[in-house]
Amino acid sequence: MTPTPLRPLTRPRRLVPGDRVAIVATSGPVPRERLDAGLDILRGWDLEPVLAPHVLDEHPRFDYLAGADQDRARDLQQAWCDPSVAAVMCARGGYGVQRMADLMDWDAMRAAGPKAFIGYSDVTALHEAFANRLGLATLHGPMAAAATFLKDGPTQDHLRRTLMEPETVQVIGSPAARTLVPGRARGITLGGCLCLLAADLGTPHARPGAAGGILLLEDTGEEAYRLDRYLTQLLRSGWLDGIAGIVLGSWEECGPYDEVRALMLDRLGGLGVPIVEELGFGHCPSAITVPLGVPAVLDAGARTLTFEVPALLTDH
Fold it and tell me: Phi and psi for 118 in degrees, rounded to 5?
C-alpha cells in the first residue's frame, strides 16, 4: 500500500507586542533563576510571559520530573484553552512528556483553536501529538529556561523573528552545513529528537508515516549504537517509506562526529533522498528555530531549507 503523503498543517498567527505567552513545564524540573532570565528576554520583546501554576514543581519521588503528570498535563491544557494566551512555550526539556500526553483532553484543545507552540528535545513527542491530534504546525525552537536561549544572542533573535517577523526567516542554512546526498526535494517539515520519534511509534499520537515529509533529525547524549537502533527502528517500521528529504541538526555528546556521519549515511543514504547535515538546530550552542508542518524545499546543493510560507500567519 502506498503511504499517504503528509499535508501542510494549520499555522497559527504571528505574535505582536503585548501578546501573552504561557510558560509550561512538560518535562524536567525548572531552575528558578534560569526561568527568571528567560522571562526577562521575552519581556524585552514586549511580550507578556505568564507562568503556569505548576511550572516550578518537583515530583515527590522522581527528581527528573517537573511535578506530577496530572499537574503538568493540566497546566498545558489550561494554557492552551485560555483565550487570552497567544502562545505556549515550554520551559525546558528532559523527560516526562510521554507520561502526560495521554492525560489531556485533545478534543477541548482542538476546539480552543490554533496558537503558537514552542519547544524541542523531549517536546518532540508533543510536536507529533499536536500534528496528529490537532493538525497544527508548531515550532521546534528554544525554551524559556534552556541554557542556549539564555546565553546565545543569535538563538534568541532567530526565535524572536520567527514569532514576530516570520517572513524574514523563510530560508535557513548554516556555514557548517554540508551535503551528504545531493538533490532537491519538496515536502512538509516534521521531526525533532530522534530517540523520541522512535519511542513514539505505535502510540495514539504518532503519525503512521513520514511520506512526503522533509524530516529533521537531531539528538544528544546518545552513543552510536543507540542512534543506529533508533534509525533502524524507523526503517523497519516503514515510517520512513516515501520520505522526500532529510535535514540533520546537532549530535552533541553522541561520540566522534565522523562516526555519527558514517552511521547516518549507512542507515539513511539508501533511501535515495537529499540529505544535508549540520543545519544548526537542536542541542547546539547556537540554535535556529524550525517550523514543523510547513511546506519547504530542501536544496542539498545549496545546503538550504526554504519555507514556501512563513512559519506563522502574518495577517490577523
Answer: -130, 135
What pLDDT was estimated at residue 315?
76
Q: What's the pLDDT tens digit per position in 272-312?
A: 999 999 999 999 999 999 999 999 999 999 999 999 999 99
pLDDT value of position 308: 98
The dihedrals phi and psi of 314, each to the nearest 5 degrees, come to: -95, -10
Other beta carbons within 10 Å of 126: 26
Q: Is 74 helix (H, G, I), strand (E, B) or coil?
A: helix
The length of the chain, given as a count of residues: 316
Joined together, the cell numbers standing for residue 116 give 503558537
- Burial class for 201, CB neighbours closer than 10 Å (0-12, 13-18, 19+): middle
126: cell is 508533543
Phi, psi of 189 (to 5 degrees): -70, 145
**Which is nearest to 120 in space by CA: 100, 144, 103, 99?**
144
- Helix, strand, coil content of the chain in percent (nearest 5): 35, 25, 40
Residue ranges, the chain, pLDDT below 50: none
What does the pLDDT read at residue 3?
A: 76
Contact criterion met (CB below 8 Å) for 66 and 28: yes
Residues catalogued as catalytic:
121, 218, 283
Q: Which amino acid would we find at residue 230?
A: Y
End-to-end CA distance of the chain: give it in Å, rounded. Answer: 41
Q: Please report which residue ranges of the chain form alpha helices under DSSP H.
A: 32-44, 69-81, 97-100, 106-112, 124-129, 147-151, 153-164, 194-200, 224-236, 257-268
pTM of the model: 0.97
Q: Return the C-alpha torsion angle 15, 17, 20, 22, nearest 10.
A: 60
Cβ contact 44:55 at 8 Å? no
CA 307 from centre of chain: 16
Query: In whole angstroms, how far apart are CA 91 and each of 6, 47, 62, 114, 303?
Result: 29, 16, 18, 20, 31
Bridge partners, 116 (sequence order): 87
